[in-house]
Amino acid sequence: MIRKLKSGQYRIYSRKTDPKTNKRKNLGTFASLEAAKKHEKEIQYFKHH
Fold first, then answer.
1. How far apart are CA 40 and CA 17, in angstroms?
2. How many C-alpha atoms does 4 have within 13 Å on its Cβ side?
3. Which distant-in-sequence residues (6+ apart) come within 8 Å of 41 by Cβ?
4. For the chain, which has fewer Cβ within 10 Å, the N-terminal or C-terminal residue?
5. Beta pairing partners, 24
6. pLDDT digits over 16-32, tens only?
7. Are residues 12 and 36 in contact, defined by beta-carbon separation less than 8 angstroms?
8. Where exactly are the structural domains of the chain?
9. What is the pLDDT of residues 2-19, one digit of tens each?
10. How far is it between the farthest Cα atoms of the chain?
11. What angle do CA 40, 44, 49 make, to 5 degrees?
12. Can you name the residues that pair with 3 across neighbouring β-strands?
């Protein structure tokens, strides 16, 4: 899940909440939406291979 921050950057959060904190894990912050989408694809590929 990608969200835009107030600073104008984009951050990737995990889809499920962390059971310990009940919040989503921060999986990285990126300057552009394209970079964030590219990294999210890489994460999904890594999770399934």
1. 17
2. 5
3. none
4. C
5. 17
6. 999 999 999 999 999 99
7. yes
8. 2-48
9. 999 999 999 999 999 999
10. 34
11. 145
12. 11
Q: Using CA atoms, how far apart are residues 44 and 49, in angstroms rounded to an integer?
A: 9
Distance of alpha carbon 36 from alpha carbon 19, whole angstroms: 25
Closest alpha carbon to 29 in 9, 15, 44, 46: 9
Q: Which residues contact 34 (CB under 8 A, 6 or more apart)?
A: none
Average pLDDT score over residue span 26-46: 97
Q: What is the pLDDT of residue 23?
A: 96
Residue type, 14: S
Residues 29, 32, 33, 34, CA torsion sign: negative
Q: Give dist(CA 39, CA 31) in Å, integer.
A: 12
